[in-house]
């Protein structure tokens, strides 16, 4: 049996590290995972390290023990989401592998069980601080999400305008700041979270950008340049160093040109409202 799953990336509306509560928005950059059962034993991860603790954790959390012990699992992952830039690549990969494994396990796929399996494995592998439930749900369901990460609760999901694009700036040779400093601004991140809860996503995202830039000691200039060139909102995504600006199509090129002045690389992706999908290939 062989299955393929597709999950998309996301950008931050409100970073959850300070309070354990966050918000994110799906984008169309995608991750595809294929999982195949073959004769034999063990796990072969074709596109990474076979001893990756995250992948092993997901397999243990989604597949029955006898399936793992009596078959060889061959796993491959293809990703359009840049790694290490705050664009939720870890959540997207975790979701994709968990969804494919859940389909292999048989029966009806339970969306929230898939998310729980992926988040637990991510926490065990120490690739997330809060469980990143905001990132996980935005990648899995698309649209806007508002979550309580520690309680693993999706409090709100709302579709985004289909005509919007994320213009994403990936700076060159910029390190992530000390994420622990985000907690020093917890009361203000709580204000940003309340804005997201009320549906004022763009205000929440702008405030998140100001706060994250200050706490992580990253330049606010690219965010300001995006806003001055027609972005509806802009912010640091995740813990950086990427900057995500949301804009209508007619403003995309102006924002790309503004970002170009800072060096680095710029990607453009439509926002995504589509839920993750999985299919049996053979």
Task: List low-confidence stretches.
Answer: none
Q: Which CATH class of the largest domain is shown?
A: Alpha Beta
Q: How many structural domains does the protein architecture include? A: 2
What structural category characterises the helix and strand content?
alpha+beta
Radius of gyration: 19 Å
Q: What proportion strand?
A: 25-35%
Order of helices and strands: EEEHHEHHHEEEHHHEEHEE
Proportion of helical residues:
25-40%
CATH architecture of the largest domain: 2-Layer Sandwich
Mean pLDDT: 94
End-to-end separation in angstroms reads 5 Å
Shape: globular
Can you describe what's shown?
This protein is of the alpha+beta class and 282 residues long. The protein is 35% helix and 29% strand. It has 9 helices and 11 strands. A hairpin with a 6-residue loop joins strand 8 and strand 9. The protein is globular. The mean pLDDT is 94.
Give structural attributes.
282 residues, alpha+beta, Ribosomal Protein S5, domain 2, 9 helices, 11 strands
How do the helices and strands line up, and which of them pair or pack?
Layout: E1 2-14, E2 21-38, E3 42-45, H1 53-62, H2 65-69, E4 72-79, H3 89-105, H4 111-124, H5 133-141, E5 144-148, E6 153-158, E7 164-170, H6 186-197, H7 201-216, H8 221-228, E8 233-236, E9 243-248, H9 252-260, E10 265-270, E11 277-280
Parallel strand pairs: 3-4
Antiparallel strand pairs: 1-2, 1-11, 2-4, 2-5, 5-6, 7-9, 7-10, 8-9
Briefly say what this structure is.
By secondary structure, this protein is of the alpha+beta class. The chain is built from nine helices and eleven strands.
């Amino acid at each position: 049996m062989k299955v393929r799953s597709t999950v998309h990336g996301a950008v931050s509306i409100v970073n959850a590290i300070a309070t354990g509560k966050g918000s994110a928005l799906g984008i169309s950059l995608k991750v595809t995972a294929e999982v195949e059962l073959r004769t034999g034993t063990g796990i072969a991860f074709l596109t990474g390290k076979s001893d990756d603790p995250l992948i092993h954790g997901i397999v243990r959390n989604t597949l029955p023990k006898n399936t793992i012990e009596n078959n060889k699992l061959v796993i491959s992952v293809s990703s359009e989401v840049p790694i290490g830039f705050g664009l939720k690549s870890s959540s997207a990969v975790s979701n994709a592998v968990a969804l494919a494994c859940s389909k292999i396990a048989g029966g009806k796929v339970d969306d929230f069980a898939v998310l729980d399996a992926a988040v637990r494995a991510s926490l065990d592998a120490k690739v997330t601080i809060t469980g990143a439930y905001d990132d996980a749900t935005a990648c899995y369901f698309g649209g806007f999400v508002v979550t309580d990460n520690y309680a693993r609760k999706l409090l709100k999901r709302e579709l985004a305008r289909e005509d919007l694009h994320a213009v994403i700036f990936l700076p060159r040779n910029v390190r992530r700041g000390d994420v622990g400093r985000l907690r020093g601004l917890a009361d203000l991140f709580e204000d940003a979270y309340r804005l997201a809860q009320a549906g004022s996503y763009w205000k929440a995202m702008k405030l998140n950008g100001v706060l994250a830039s200050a706490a992580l000691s990253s330049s606010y200039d690219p965010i300001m340049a995006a806003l001055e060139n027609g972005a509806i909102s802009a912010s640091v995504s995740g813990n950086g160093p990427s900057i995500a600006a949301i804009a209508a199509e007619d403003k995309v090129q102006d924002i790309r040109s503004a970002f170009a002045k800072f060096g680095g690389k710029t990607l453009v992706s439509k926002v995504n409202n589509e839920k993750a999908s999985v299919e049996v290939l053979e």
